[in-house]
Amino acid sequence: MPRSGSWRSAGPAAFVLLCAASIALSGAASDTPSLDIARGRHIATALAGCADCHGTDFGGGRPFTRAGQTVFAANLTGGAGGVAAASDGDLARAIRTGIRSDGTRLQVMPSREYAIMTDADVNDLIAFLRSLRPVDRSVARGAAPAGTPSPVGQESPAERSGPLGTGVYLATIGGCTNCHAANLAGGARIGEIVAPDISHAGIGNWSFADFASAMRTGRTPDGRLLARVMPWESIGKMTDEELRSLYDFLESKPGGAS
């Protein structure tokens, strides 16, 4: 005889309701995107270079000078002075548009590049930030840029299609096109150096092995040290497949005028 209170004693109607509820719950769960914190860590430390500015603990504080004013990289952890109060939507907006939740503009955030980040990558990156050990570090915001804030980087999320699609994506969110220009021919002054040509015209005599070695050791094939502003230490954390995709894209650009 069934125990009192078991679903068996409740009759067939209750059993049907129980099955319907289980199906509804499983359906709702399937609509929720799965988050990959390991992928988010890889984006933050290798692909998008977040750690280069916000520090290996992501607690921020690194100073940058822009238009004669000093601003500081934000604390991205949930500690005091961090982003615990920001919603996921707030963080996604800051990443992709460079606009804070209060409507003010971030000055150094490379949102023109991050705007093409896929929804999955943005969500995984945010999940990783939420998983970080809290760092209690209040960081001064600095003066807001003059003028009315306007969103930047309004491009649609990247479509990873075509033989060079992954390389385009990595070169964009990794900042290659930011420093070395869209045609990768360089020429922009960054502090005391001029960004070199990293198109086929500039590194066409490098093999893939040369390129991968340079990104992982900081030395060019002829033994020269890469400039300190070059984030080779983060790029070098890419997988072999990612580096190959990036190399193939760089080699596809002839250099010179776009």
Query: Can you summarize the main beta sheet?
Result: 2 strands, antiparallel
Fraction of helical residues: 40-55%
**How many domains make up the coordinates?**
2
Class based on secondary structure composition and strand pairing: mainly alpha
Multimerization status? single chain
Task: Give short descriptive properties of this protein.
258 residues, 2 domains, disordered N terminus, two-stranded antiparallel ribbon, Cytochrome Bc1 Complex, Chain D, domain 2, 12 helices, mainly alpha
Plain-language structure description:
This protein has twelve helices and four strands; from the N terminus they run αααββαααααββαααα. The chain has helices at residues 12-31, 37-47, 50-54, 88-97, 111-114, 119-131, 165-173, 176-180, 200-203, 208-217, 232-235, 240-252, and strands at 63-66, 69-72, 189-190, 193-194. The strands form two sheets. A two-stranded antiparallel sheet has the order 1-2. The protein has a two-stranded antiparallel ribbon with strand order 3-4. α2 packs across α6 (119-131) and α7 crosses α12. The relative contact order is 0.12.
